[in-house]
Amino acid sequence: MDFGWSKDEGSFRQRVRDFLDEHWTNADDTSTEGQQRGRNFEKVLADNGWLTMAWPEQYGGQGASHVEQMIYKEEAALHAAPTGGGGVSLVGPTLQIHGTEEQKKEHLPKIANAEVLWCQGYSEPGSGSDLASLQIRAVRDGDDFIINGQKIWTSGAQRADWIHVLKRTEPDAPKHRGISYFMVRMDTPGITVQPIEQMHGARGFNETFFEDARVPARNIIGEENRGWYVATTTLDFERSGVQRAAGVQRSFARLLGFANEPDSAGRGQRVADGALNRHTLSETAIEIEVGRYLGYRVAWMQSRGLVPNYESSMSKAYNSELSQRNARRGISLLGLHGTLRPQSDHSVMDGQYCQLYMSTVSATIAAGTSEIQRNVIATRGLGLPRG
Ligand SMILES: Cc1cc2nc3c(=O)[nH]c(=O)nc-3n(C[C@H](O)[C@H](O)[C@H](O)COP(=O)(O)OP(=O)(O)OC[C@H]3O[C@@H](n4cnc5c(N)ncnc54)[C@H](O)[C@@H]3O)c2cc1C
């Protein structure tokens, strides 16, 4: 079996690679200014039609194949370039399946043009893995709903223009059947955002509070009280994608570069020395290949109009755990210097593996924990009864 790319796909990949090599110079800058430069570059990518190339043309896409879109996303992740965030990867695809024509016309072109930023309001302080137990209320008032309650871990809420958010609209129904899926403007009066600081210094996510926030009923995606079934579509999109494996590939390539490049203190050479170290590096190389193919499978299914489900969970569980193994192995190969932060004069590889070690802790929690992914694989993939 040949897993290679067609000639056209190969030359498309080269075109994306050349473009990013030439124009994207801001990788790994997580400062506020760096994030703004990433936003500006998204506009450049949108102008080139790459952010949403597999979307239909009438909604701002190019009608390209899912495989081309995947190649673009993989290259973007290999370059640590922006990919358009939750609008491109979550809300847009969900609207294409469950949205009304009016909603698609209103939102999809703005996402495709990188005009708006979206965040995701699912988790609550008491509802994470058991998401359907969520408590935040939306109560009908004429043509609107009035929202009261709290969300947590809302990534990027401090910069977002819109939030896609699950609310309880029928408290007396069984928990999965009383939820509706809303799109809400973040500048709606009554919404406030409180950033949460992470252990590696970033302020990636937030608490989001709603106090008598008013949202029009026409902003519900899908049917009222049937939002749970729309949300599972979004979750499948969130768990799919080759970016996770490509992210590991990127940091691993740097570690290899360091091992192959003798520095005056001989630290790189020590990484490459000894059978055990070489086997550890080889193990990661094998696992990256496995992770990539799990991601490719999801894109291949999408390109054939199939809806990946447990396949997305396999890719997500494997690649998020791989990101942690790679970080652990890297830091152990680099020795004590590898545990130092970028600011230290004695850090190796600018402290990248120290940062990676801390930032990947969350990889097996975000977008559903590894246990939840395995529950999905067990029930929907293997057909086992619910535990
Ligand atoms: C970096 C990051 C970004 C995030 N961004 C967002 C965001 O933008 N929007 C948003 O809404 N949420 C976001 N989240 C929240 C994320 O979705 C939740 O943290 C996640 O779903 C787990 O929920 P929890 O933290 O409440 O843990 P809990 O659900 O309390 O789980 C605690 C532990 O119990 C285990 N567990 C729970 N239930 C089961 C079960 N049935 N079987 C086996 N084990 C189980 C879990 O695996 C976990 O180990 C983000 C999280 C992270 C880390």
List keywords for this structure.
387 residues, Butyryl-Coa Dehydrogenase, subunit A, domain 1, Butyryl-CoA Dehydrogenase, subunit A, domain 2, Butyryl-CoA Dehydrogenase, subunit A, domain 3, 3 domains, four-stranded mixed sheet, 47% helix, binds flavin-adenine dinucleotide
Topology:
Blueprint: H1 7-23, H2 32-47, H3 66-78, H4 85-98, H5 101-112, E1 118-121, E2 137-141, E3 144-152, E4 162-168, E5 179-185, E6 191-196, E7 205-216, E8 220-221, H6 227-239, H7 243-260, H8 267-272, H9 275-303, H10 310-334, H11 352-359, H12 370-381
Parallel strand pairs: 1-4
Antiparallel strand pairs: 2-3, 3-7, 4-5, 5-8, 6-7
Helix pairs in contact: 1-3, 3-7, 4-5, 4-6, 6-10, 7-9, 7-10, 9-10, 10-11, 10-12
The site of flavin-adenine dinucleotide (FAD) has 19 residues, from strand 1 and helix 12.
Describe this structure in words.
The model has no long low-confidence stretch (mean pLDDT 93). The chain has 12 helices and 8 strands. Helix 9 (275-303) runs antiparallel to helix 10 (310-334) and helix 10 (310-334) runs antiparallel to helix 12 (370-381). The chain has a 4-stranded mixed sheet. A 4-stranded antiparallel sheet has the order 2-3-7-6, with no helix packed on it. It folds into 3 domains: 7-83, Acyl-CoA dehydrogenase/oxidase, N-terminal domain (Butyryl-Coa Dehydrogenase, subunit A, domain 1), CATH 1.10.540.10; 119-225, Butyryl-CoA Dehydrogenase, subunit A, domain 2 (Beta Barrel); 240-381, Butyryl-CoA Dehydrogenase, subunit A, domain 3 (Up-down Bundle), CATH 1.20.140. The protein is an alpha+beta fold and 387 residues long. Helices cover 47% and strands 13% of the residues. The chain binds flavin-adenine dinucleotide. Residues 119-123, 128-129, 153-155, 205, 362, 365-366, 368-369, 371-372, 375 line the site of flavin-adenine dinucleotide.
